[in-house]
């Protein structure tokens, strides 16, 4: 792409660094900002800058928060002895939307992924192990995505806490509610047979 | 979507104002910026702000430019008597990529579109009509997109310059090179019959 303006080119190149945004889309977005009043660009950039500079992470669960201890961790009606281990804030939001979980979260900030250069030391794993070793935790629920990286991360943490007195579980894998059996992949279908549940239990929360 | 942080929420809402970016995508992009070094967000926002504040439009063709008269308009080897009328800078870039056009451009900045609240007065139409009336232009080539808005804009301009001594043309509409006939829409196929070209002419520039 050849640009008639260096200012435009720089803006497009910066926009195209966002994941999933190609050069063409970046140009479309930047031209949109040019057509809108100058104030929109000012508000947009100041919101991003302010967030990047002032954002805090909860000291207990490492979730994004505007205060030292987030609303979930500081809620006295939640059960601090059950901790759900997730990758990032989107998983917390998804789980909170279900309204099914009354424990606390622990946000790892990613998954172990050598290909992306993410090792255990870059994740919030040590503080989780310390929490477990302190004896205040009864159950750890792994809720990472069902990928090789997710499984690796689960197992890495499990090895460090398996000698502690703590129950460990993972969220159920199986056929999604509403899914047709014939379109399910073999691995999921096979595991859903092995981990079948008593029919009476499956009637809960319907 | 419920956010645990107002800073995050504001950043996501601003990001989601960009066209084609929904709330989920906006959250993904904002979280990406949070994972990257602070400098990336600073460079990104400063590039956008600087562009929005300092960008200039060429005084002759209204294309985006860093100088008063853009590189194309100030190029003495280009033919100022042929003017190609386009919607925005992307069309200029696309046409320049063909290497087939040696005239100048006139960037309207949009199309007449009552639904979007865009009338003729918001577009760079008057300056085009003045250019034509000054007598320095021999041919006007309309290269707007082939939509109702594009056709309306073409016709609006045509009405104002049809009494001047100027040739008006539009770029050819027809079956794209490499396209299968059976998948072409009826209107395009029908017009490609009406506006058929002598076979010898079709061999040019192959």
From TrEMBL, chains A, B:
It holds the Pfam family Toprim_4. One of its GO terms (molecular function) is DNA binding. It comes from the Bacteria. The keyword DNA repair applies. Keywords: DNA damage, DNA recombination, DNA repair, Metal-binding, Zinc, Zinc-finger. Residues 81-176 form the Toprim domain. The keyword Metal-binding applies. Signal peptide: none annotated. Transmembrane segments: none annotated. Belongs to the RecR family. This is Recombination protein RecR. It comes from Flavobacterium enshiense DK69. The lineage of its organism: Bacteria, Pseudomonadati, Bacteroidota, Flavobacteriia, Flavobacteriales.
């Amino acid at each position: 792409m050849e640009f008639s303006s260096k200012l435009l080119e720089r803006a497009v190149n910066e926009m195209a660094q966002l994941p999933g945004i190609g050069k063409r889309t970046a140009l479309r977005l930047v031209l949109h900002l040019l057509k809108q009043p100058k104030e929109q660009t000012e508000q947009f950039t100041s919101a991003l800058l302010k967030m990047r500079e002032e954002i805090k992470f909860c000291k207990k669960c490492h979730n994004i928060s505007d205060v030292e201890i987030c609303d979930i961790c500081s809620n006295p009606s939640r059960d601090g002895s059950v901790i759900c281990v997730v990758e990032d804030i989107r998983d917390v939001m998804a789980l909170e939307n279900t309204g099914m979980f009354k424990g606390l979260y622990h946000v790892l900030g990613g998954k172990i992924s050598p290909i992306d250069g993410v090792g255990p030391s870059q994740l919030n794993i040590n503080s989780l192990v310390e929490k477990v070793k302190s004896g205040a935790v009864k159950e750890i629920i792994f809720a990472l995505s069902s990928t090789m990286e997710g499984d690796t991360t689960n197992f890495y943490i499990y090895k460090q806490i398996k000698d502690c007195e703590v129950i460990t579980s993972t969220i159920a894998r199986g056929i999604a509610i509403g899914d047709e059996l014939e379109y399910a992949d073999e691995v999921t279908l096979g595991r859903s047979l092995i981990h079948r549940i008593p029919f009476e239990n499956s009637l809960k929360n319907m």
